[in-house]
Amino acid sequence: MATKSTAWNQVIAGFGLMFNSWGLINAFGVFQEYYSSFHPALSTLSSISWIGSLQIFLMLACGSATGSFVDRGYAQLMTFIGCALVTLGLLFTSFSGEFTSAHRPVYYQVLLSQGVLSGMGMSLLLVPSTAIVPTHFTQNRALAVGLANTGASLGGIVYPVLTRRLLASVGFSWGMRATALVVLATTGVGGLLVRQRADLTKSPFKRTLYRFSCLKDPPYALFVAGIFFSFAGIYIPYFYISAWVRDTAFPLHDVSTYYLISIMNAGGLVGRIIPNFVADKFISGPVLTQALATIACAGPTGLLSALLARQLGLSICVLDAKQSPIEVGGADAITARTQQYLEVASNAEQNVGTNAGILGELLNRGVKCNTSTTYADGEFTSRQSKWWNEIPHTFYNNLLMIGQPYIERHFASHIDVPIYYDEPALSFSHKKSPLSVTVRTAKRTVEGRFCLAADGARSFVRNHLNIGWEGTKPNMVWAVLDCWIDTTFPVTREIVTLQVNGESRMAWIPRERGMQRFYVLLDGEITHERTEASIRRHMAPHHVEFTHVEWFSRFEIKERVASTFLYPTSSEPFILAGDAAHVHSVNGGQGMNTGLSDAFNLIWRLYFLLRHHSLPSSSSDQILSSYDTERRETAKGVIDVAAKLVRSTLADAKGYVELIEKNAGFITGMGVQYSGLSSPLVRESEHSIWKAGQRAPDLWLSDPKGDAVRLYQKLIYGRYLLIIVAAVRRAMEVQNSDFVMLLRLTGLSARRVGVQGRSEDVEEETHPEAFGCSWVKRGEEYAVLVRPDCCIEFVGDVDEVLEYTASRLPGLI
């Protein structure tokens, strides 16, 4: 939250912008009276009112579209442009003429200048004047918003008196110029003070000018309708009262008619301050927030869940007990499979090159590593990268070494909703009809359909719900040190296992920024000094100097998994993920990555449950229950592998490396599969390189233009992929592109430059939209259904797969 001075400066800024948007509109009645007071008048009363009506219409119609630009962080620029347009609109109005017989103003010029140009300028002031102030306050929010809004009332008080007297004393042209000067000064000050919260201006890729889907929410639609009908008539007295009193000779006892406009606006001062003050002091409790999903904890799992949910347009609320994102320490690597997931997540971003986006920015900063080296008795004894280089059908055959602090900040920068730090959950409740969950913090009450608990190994949610926490503690504590060193040891971008006396008690991990991480297993007391001494002993005879230490910590090994990931039943609202669902040793680098896989496996399921309204109840139950089936078994497998690795550190390094190679499928993430688990979202089947329950292979394809592209570059998270191999004459069409994509594959058409053709090489009939693939064999026809988490669900004959898809996911194809 911003400092107090910055926060209250936004109130001043909002006041200035309100003063010159709603304030000027509230004062338009004085122009209505003035323009119609001459003979001949500027135009009819009805035609004159169109000037003010255009101002209101353009401010609201165009202003509602500018919210997208405020989200992107352009509020201050918008205020400056808006200030310029309103000022120019009034200046151009002054140039249209003078109310004399020699040079009378021309109606259409006044309409375009004061109505259109000023109205466009006001539209740029509208959203910054209302949206920024509440983001800077957790206390006295209603009062702060009310004080900012008094600018509309005060503008409606000041401008009628100021402008009408200027028009009477110095004439139309100079009166309008003087009014323009007041607008320039007051709006300019407001623009200079505008400051947006940086955490709310990131990741604009899913924001559009309008999102009409929000009108599908009945309460919101009724609210909009109520506002519409309120505005339909509210400005009639503001526009006409002064002219009506003049024309009807209504007795005011020498009070100028334009004072009536100021008096009407004066009532708004009371209404904008006193109720807001009372609300803050006596009525307001915690802020009520509506969200489809509440995400408890803004660690990597929670943040990726939030990022994916926002890509899919789900409303969420992210709560975290931490006071701020972590700055040092944490996890240190992203596996090959996680890199594939993040590439798919990156595909949703528009106009992002290969060196940017969710994955691209991490690749630019991290250190790629796919070699494990053993160092013992003063020399390197082995160097292995076989298990990385032999991963089939992938573009990523390495670990990406990068720290959790940067990963968290990076994910947060791609999320377009606020993250509420320092807001630990205090209590929970849920009801079954309709299915919903309520989460309460000291500052807000969040109501939603689901609550995702990713709040760590000591999960408050898991403990509060009394979910079982099964497993053991092997009584092993590792020291972890992030540092920079000066050494004669040959520093490489490899994972080095260092052995002393036949035991591999130390691992050396290369990190970003030239930093090094050491994991050291010590007996007895674990201190910073003993850790550095052990590192020197393992790296002997090379000299080591620790030039800077960023982080030192201890990590007690726990091997536990929650008894269920869904509570209280397989279809109800509490969901566990990440360390709240499973914890294990640091060996193998699977903690954070398993949590990120949980997120990737889960969020698309919630999207289908919340957005696919024609989903059969049987499919709905299976979609959510299969998350528990698949991810709990995976967690058990990860824990088993990590347990073997951590215990093997007491053996020689050769055995440790052999164990890594044996379990490379889990360590790289590429071997994790859901076949054989009786998952309802995996129909056991296999054809060629496609096997249900396994990851979809990242094949090289040739698009219809002949350009090379990989399969994972075509995937969009949240959508099923239906692959049709051959079957050229089968006509099919995607009915709902929000949930499924269609990809046709055909045999690869080789160019055969310098190669003599064979008689059997007859070109097969191909579909004009088909992608060439070298794995498609002549005469084959089949279909593959790939889930949104890039796992193969079913492989079979085209008719069989289409029938399966139609029954499970109706209305898509």
TrEMBL record:
GO terms for cellular component: membrane. Keywords: FAD, Flavoprotein, Membrane, Oxidoreductase, Transmembrane, Transmembrane helix. InterPro entries: FAD-bd (IPR002938), FAD/NAD-bd_sf (IPR036188), MFS_trans_sf (IPR036259), RIFMO-like (IPR050641). The chain crosses the membrane at residues 7-28, 48-70, 77-95, 107-130, 142-162, 174-194, 220-245, 257-275, 287-309. Residues 295-640 form the FAD-binding domain. Pfam families: FAD_binding_3. GO terms for molecular function: FAD binding; oxidoreductase activity, acting on paired donors, with incorporation or reduction of molecular oxygen, NAD(P)H as one donor, and incorporation of one atom of oxygen; transmembrane transporter activity. Its cofactor is FAD. Gene3D superfamilies: 3.40.30.120, D-Amino Acid Oxidase, subunit A, domain 2, FAD/NAD(P)-binding domain, MFS general substrate transporter like domains. It comes from the Eukaryota. This is FAD-binding domain-containing protein. It comes from Didymella heteroderae.
